Structure formats: C-alpha cells, structure tokens
Task: inverse folding
C-alpha cells in the first residue's frame, strides 16, 4: 500500500484540565466525575448524540447491580425517573430498561449543569506525544482539523482511539481472532393486522424456520412497541470496510427477521426505527498497569486499589456464530461480585492517559462482564476522579494515592466492598 506523508499547522482550539474521548456511559461518568471535582472538562464525541451504545446503539437497559455504582449513575437514573422513562428497580441484579431517546436529551443537560464543554460530530484522529505524555488530541469536525490540549486524557471510546493514535499497547479478541459479536437494535410498532406493511418479495433473504433465525432477543419498549436485538458476528470494529459491511448486513438481517416475524409468526409489526449505529460489544481494550483476567473474577482476587466492583455474569457471546451461544458452557458463566483495580484504568505506556468502560485493561472474558453500563459508569467516574486528583496534585496519574480515589468514590455513594455487595443481594 502506498503511504503519503504530510504536515500541517493545526489551530489549538480548546484547552482543558481533562479531556474525555467518547461519550458512552463511561465517558459521561468520567466527564462528570472530573467536573464534580472542579475540573475544566471537555468531552469529544464522533456522533451527533451523547450516550454511545446507550443512545445511538439503542441499548436501553442498565444491567447488573445498579445500586452503589457512584453518584453519576444515580444522577442519570434519578433524571430518567423524573421523566418517567425508566423501569422500577427490581430486587437482586435485574436490569432497568429505560427510554434511550429521553436519555439522549438528559445527558447534555447534566453535563451543562457541571459546565462540561461538549463537542459533537468530532472524531479523534491523532495525538501529539511528548515522550509518555499526550500533549494534544487532533480532532476532525465540521470546523476541520483542530487540536485540543489537556493535562489529563481519558479514553472512553471503546476503540482505544487515543491509545491507538499514541501507539500504546492495546488488545482485541481473545477466544478467537474475532471480537465479541456485534448486535443490531431495532424497534417495531404494533399495528392492526390490516395496517401491516409487508416487506416486498425479492429484496432480502427469507428466513422460513426458527432454527435459521440469528440470536434474536425481544425486549419491552413501552406500549405497542418492542425493541429487538439481533446478533451480527465476525465484523471488526477497527476496520472501516468491515464496519461498513456490519451496518449494511445488520440492516439486511433486520429486514429478514422482520419478514419472519410478520409472515411466519403472524405478528402485526412494522419497522419503527433502527438504532443509528450497530452495537459494538468489544472494540479495543487498552493495556494497563494490570490486565484483569477471568481467573481473577472466578478466584475472587482481592486488589488493595479496588475502585469498582463488577457484578454481571460472563456475557461472552461466541464471536463466530450468530446463534445464542457462549464462549464458555452456560453453567460456568456466573461469577461472584469482583474487584476492579485502579491499575486497570491506567494505560501502561503513558503518564497521562486513563481509560474506562469497554477500553478497560481486561482479558476478553473479564470484559464480557465488566462491559455492562453500570460497571462502565463506575470505572468512568473513578477515572474522572483520578484524573482530577492528578491535576490538583500536579502529578501524573500514578502519583495519585489510590486511597484518595477510593475515599471519593465512597463519598459519591459507590460500594467498593464486594462482600457488602454480595450480602446485599443475598438479603434481597
Ligand atoms: C447489542 C448490545 C446489547 C447490550 N446489552 C446491554 C444491556 O442490556 N445492559 C447493559 O448494561 N449493557 C449492555 N451492553 C453493553 C453496553 O451497552 C456497553 O458495553 C456500554 O454501553 C459501553 O459503554 P462505553 O462508554 O464503554 O462505550 P460506548 O457506549 O460504545 O461509547 C463509546 C463512545 O465513543 C465514541 N467514539 C469512538 N471512537 C471515537 C473517536 N475516534 N472519536 C470520538 N468519539 C469516538 C463512540 O461514538 C461512542 O459514543 C450491550 C452491548 C451491545 C452492543
């Protein structure tokens, strides 16, 4: 392949204490976590809406433990409650389904309350490095190429956009060369039988029996509507052509499944809308000072620098299969509440780069649990607090005493004692 080199002077349009890359639940929690500590924060998002998988991806369900996850998740859930846009809390670890369109309008309001600067339609394209420090992020938006300088950076892109640009060590896949499979979310409206708009013949592949369906999950979505999730495996989130085909083939599959529901199952459903983008379960994990492993989860490994507790099962969908199959046998998916150490949020190759959410330093199976939005929010808030403390103490992220981060997380309502988490659920 031919290479082209070029150099260009780029305006430094913004400067901040903390720059957060990506605005999924991890990025939102990181930005608010740092802003609540008095930091000047900027958050950069490539889409035109905040929320990542939770809005653009149409994934509208807080899974796993949603109590004691920190003040950001509490604030988001309280706001959704005010709008009557979230299901009541269930006992135990049941999820809370919410309205993702309401979340999309709530998030910018919450960020504004804490004076977080938001840039939408802005993609991180590169970084300027000075040794092990990121000096600036190079972003591309409607105004063209611009630079953002910050003292601390937090990569919550799920794709390691900052880390990869910096040439820092990253991981993807594990059980095979493929990442955990993507799934597409779409939404159907229930109509009278006479109003069903059938999909015309000859456009999309026909599914004529249940065994030919991809893994299809039907979720509630308010009155006369359902959210539907279909598995779209074996695409690579780091490859432009592959991502293009994932989106196109995901929608093709959606039409085949809708046709099956209409014609074979006689459901009076029509397509309401499809999520803006396909849902990515695993993109790129950044190698941190420690890599959390599935054995750490199973063996209840204690970490003195615990800053988050994961509670979800090992939701490791088989990457190379579109059925309801898992990497591990079903009987070994459960794990007890487990520690996530601060070391997994600090990029090994840098001095001012942290990560949270899907970028966590974890093996594929450990991430298959820690990727749920409740845990993403917890790791995000912990990263935001740590970055803020680093700025206040004028040190790099490793200079921040983990006990300070733990203290602030607990003050923010986080439960960091996994035995307390376990006994809380047993009591329910
Ligand atoms: C189909 C599906 C179903 C799921 N079901 C559930 C569920 O029921 N409950 C649950 O809790 N979890 C569920 N999950 C997991 C959960 O939704 C995600 O793991 C979680 O939302 C990830 O949050 P995040 O903030 O790490 O990443 P994301 O939500 O993916 O956010 C990353 C953000 O970074 C942005 N970004 C990426 N690259 C760049 C760049 N170069 N420049 C600027 N911005 C960039 C993206 O646009 C995105 O907005 C599901 C996931 C999928 C895919």
Result:
């Amino acid at each position: 392949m031919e290479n082209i080199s070029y150099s260009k002077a780029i305006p430094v349009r913004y400067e901040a204490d903390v720059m957060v890359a990506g605005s999924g639940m991890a990025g939102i929690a990181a930005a608010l976590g740092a802003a609540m500590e008095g930091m000047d924060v900027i958050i950069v998002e490539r889409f035109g809406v905040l929320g990542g998988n939770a809005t653009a991806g149409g994934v509208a369900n807080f899974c796993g433990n949603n109590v004691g996850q920190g003040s950001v998740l509490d604030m988001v859930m309280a706001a959704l409650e005010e709008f009557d846009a979230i299901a009541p809390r269930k006992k135990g670890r049941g999820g809370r389904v919410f309205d993702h369109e309401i979340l999309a309008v709530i998030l910018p309001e919450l960020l504004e309350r804490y004076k977080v600067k938001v840039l939408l339609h802005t993609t991180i394209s590169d970084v300027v490095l000075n040794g092990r420090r990121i000096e600036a992020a190079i972003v591309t938006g409607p105004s063209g190429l611009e630079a953002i300088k910050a003292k601390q950076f937090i990569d919550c892109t799920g794709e390691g956009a900052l880390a990869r640009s910096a040439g820092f060590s990253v991981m993807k896949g594990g059980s095979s060369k493929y990442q955990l499979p993507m799934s597409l979310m779409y939404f159907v409206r229930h109509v009278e039988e006479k109003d069903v708009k059938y999909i015309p013949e000859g456009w999309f592949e026909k599914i004529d029996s249940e065994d030919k369906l991809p893994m299809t999950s039907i979720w509630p979505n308010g009155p006369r509507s359902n959210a539907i999730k279909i598995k779209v495996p074996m695409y690579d989130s780091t490859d432009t052509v592959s991502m293009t085909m994932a989106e196109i083939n995901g929608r093709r599959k959606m039409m085949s499944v809708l046709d099956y529901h209409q014609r074979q199952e006689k459901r009076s459903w029509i397509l309401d809308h499809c999520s803006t983008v396909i849902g990515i379960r695993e993109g790129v994990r950044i190698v941190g000072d420690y890599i959390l492993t599935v054995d750490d989860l199973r063996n209840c490994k204690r970490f003195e620098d615990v800053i988050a507790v994961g509670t979800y099962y090992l939701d490791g969908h088989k990457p190379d299969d579109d059925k309801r199959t898992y990497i591990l046998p079903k009987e070994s998916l459960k794990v007890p509440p487990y520690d996530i150490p601060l070391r997994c949020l600090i990029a090994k190759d840098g001095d001012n780069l942290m990560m949270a959410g899907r970028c966590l330093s974890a093996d594929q199976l450990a991430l298959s649990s820690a990727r749920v939005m409740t845990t993403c929010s917890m790791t995000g808030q912990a990263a935001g607090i740590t970055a803020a403390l680093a700025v206040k103490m004028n040190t790099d992220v490793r200079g921040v005493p983990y006990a300070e981060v733990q203290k602030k997380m607990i003050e923010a309502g986080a439960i960091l004692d996994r035995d307390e988490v376990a006994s809380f659920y047993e009591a329910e």
Remarks:
- The first strand starts at residue 12 and ends at 21.
